[in-house]
Amino acid sequence: MMQTQVVHAKETQLFDIIDGSVTTPLGFRASGLHCGLKKTARNDLGAIVCDVPAIAAAVYTTNVFQAAPLAVTRASLEEEGKLQAIIVNSGNANACTGKQGEADAYRMRSAFAEQLGIAPHYVAVASTGVIGEALKMECVEQGIMKLPEQLTPLAEGAEQFSQAILTTDLVKKEACAVLTVNGKQVTVAGCAKGSGMIHPNMATMLGFVTTDAALEQDTLAGLLRTVTNKTFNMITVDGDTSTNDMLLAMASGMAGNEPLTEQHEAWPAFAAAFQYVCEQLAKAIARDGEGATKLIEVRVSGALSDESASAIAKSIVGSSLVKSAVYGSDANWGRVIAAVGYAGQPVNPETVDIHMGSIMVLQQSTPVVFDEAAALAYLKGDTVVFQVDLHMGSGEAKAWGCDLTYDYVRINAAYRT
Amino acid sequence: MMQTQVVHAKETQLFDIIDGSVTTPLGFRASGLHCGLKKTARNDLGAIVCDVPAIAAAVYTTNVFQAAPLAVTRASLEEEGKLQAIIVNSGNANACTGKQGEADAYRMRSAFAEQLGIAPHYVAVASTGVIGEALKMECVEQGIMKLPEQLTPLAEGAEQFSQAILTTDLVKKEACAVLTVNGKQVTVAGCAKGSGMIHPNMATMLGFVTTDAALEQDTLAGLLRTVTNKTFNMITVDGDTSTNDMLLAMASGMAGNEPLTEQHEAWPAFAAAFQYVCEQLAKAIARDGEGATKLIEVRVSGALSDESASAIAKSIVGSSLVKSAVYGSDANWGRVIAAVGYAGQPVNPETVDIHMGSIMVLQQSTPVVFDEAAALAYLKGDTVVFQVDLHMGSGEAKAWGCDLTYDYVRINAAYRT
């Protein structure tokens, strides 16, 4: 069942938002099934396949202990910068699994390539789940044999894929945007998983973006890096950076547009649509943070630079005390200012303003008497926005996170068992 | 009621551990009372007073928004490097309270100095509690008038003081050690508060160390910095660095020893006793972390440097996922290795060993099959030790923290209200 999105980006008109997922762009099929890695009968193996070798790019976790599938995907992309298929399992991260784990990840790649009749280096591999346990390869291989016949460009395929990549996630995360390039309709879509072990440091989850736009590999890779820094790298659930995070983008070129470059007149629209899709997925991950009941958005302005604003925004949105206060709808802005103060960034301690929603609580670093009842009502909503203005420069950033709840502890106190 | 400690430092014999607190060293008196800042009738104002101006040193939070009392204490110490009294309130941090807050902190200093008949710059001020609310000065001033008559060198005075500095703490934190310097008995004692907003970055709580040793101010200040880095700076509860943290040391000189220098033959014993007191207080803060049921100790060895080992140890002990797994007694070492990997330090991903207690779970970065029942039994204890050996160099460090529990969330979801 697809989510219906009726919001349109009226403020820019650079692109339109539609109801769609990774199979909406021309040339893509997807599917998912239960192969036996998860204890319950939920999907745990999925694939996205393109009709042609698609221009592709990826960003990976910065964790030193990168999981085996990341090495395999990196090896695939290094060959031609193109991918035709992504095979993903959930329920087991295939991380810290030594030589066996690496062999298993290569086996996933070759088995799926064989089924599709394509070169192995056109296949990317991704895994998510428990660290340090060997993959049940008999399950995976049996699943890989069944997957190709189920692949479909219909919404059903994207739905099955979206389900297959989830772990502790409660909802699937999808977004889709369309724009026109030289009279051709171009579509950008994505889906993602991520709920725990989420902290901004390159891509911090599994994310898959598809588009039918035509563009060069370098152009796609550059856009992916830039957009990741403003979206996926600006979310945190628990400050833990996973071993398996990866964001993959594939461009089929089947929209038939003139190849997009940064000089193309439609570039701003394409880049905006691409960023929209990634931002929606990133916010959906934050909102679906383990145990979360609310999305927290932090906007920092007036910093000496955008980088400085980013560091401060991440410091606030990552504070366990801010997150707990939001859960309890406690207007404890003292924790916000404390997190500004320990972010390690230049801050004038005399000139800070803080708003919770539209309620000003601190002006020029001096407490403002505010309506506690109004603050409580605001904090009881499902989205809480903190705005911090440092009044020092023009640097700004946004970051997203979620509240810290009993359920985060419950989920993570017995994840393996 | 004092805690009876019968453990002796047999491994070193450099000093002895005794049952004592901040009034055990010669020359110190203390007291505490309820002046009305806390809603319940718990003590919220306390003082330590020395019979003579004591050599003194302090370390302060690195948070940009240092609370008003820290500025006042800094001003006091800058005069002569000596203190004769410390006045502390809990229930209100007097932080982010603007000009009024600064005036209030200076007023606390002068009011207490007046009561004692000493110069204002011999008084240090410390506050802990809610950020951003004005101090009820009428309560504080009334309390300050009553305090002097209650000051006593007896255990009762230290007990009342220890109670007066607590906020969400469940237990008071005290430690005491004695050694002999040129035939004279020298005592070092300390007490501390801290339970939430605890993260290693200079002193991360309120801590008070008293000693009757004679030594120069520079020597005391240097020792305090060195020891803080190995003790208070190696604990974390929630990754939040407070606006009010301060560690103060006072040396009355009344033991009558030859002044201690780093060249003195008794220096290793004095430094060890000083470090013992600070480490006990730091571990007590970690164990009493908000909502905590267990102390987590992380030992990192084989790093390229001690600094690198410290960063890795802090990364592990600060991981919400590691903390949740310890709460649930889940032997999820994958989260430990993930925290090693995102610490931003040089690590060879092929050579890491991990032990939980005496149980090896990872050898040369490859999972070891271990006895799950034994691991569960170990993790159900009240202290959990993770040992990580990187096999790269001789750098080592220890860090302490606590598990993440439902109660941490409960306590912090409604702290103000």
TrEMBL record, chains A, B:
Entry keyword Transport: no
A Pfam family this chain is assigned to: ArgJ
Keyword list, A-Z: Acyltransferase, Amino-acid biosynthesis, Arginine biosynthesis, Autocatalytic cleavage, Cytoplasm, Multifunctional enzyme, Transferase
Catalytic reactions of this protein: L-glutamate + acetyl-CoA = N-acetyl-L-glutamate + CoA + H(+); N(2)-acetyl-L-ornithine + L-glutamate = N-acetyl-L-glutamate + L-ornithine
Record-annotated active site: 204
Stretches assigned to coiled coil: none
Site (Cleavage): 203-204
Entry's EC annotation: 2.3.1.35, 2.3.1.1
Pathway note: Amino-acid biosynthesis; L-arginine biosynthesis; L-ornithine and N-acetyl-L-glutamate from L-glutamate and N(2)-acetyl-L-ornithine (cyclic): step 1/1; Amino-acid biosynthesis; L-arginine biosynthesis; N(2)-acetyl-L-ornithine from L-glutamate: step 1/4
Subcellular location: Cytoplasm
Binding-site list for substrate: 167, 193, 204, 290, 412, 417
Protein family membership: Belongs to the ArgJ family.
Protein name: Arginine biosynthesis bifunctional protein ArgJ
Gene: argJ
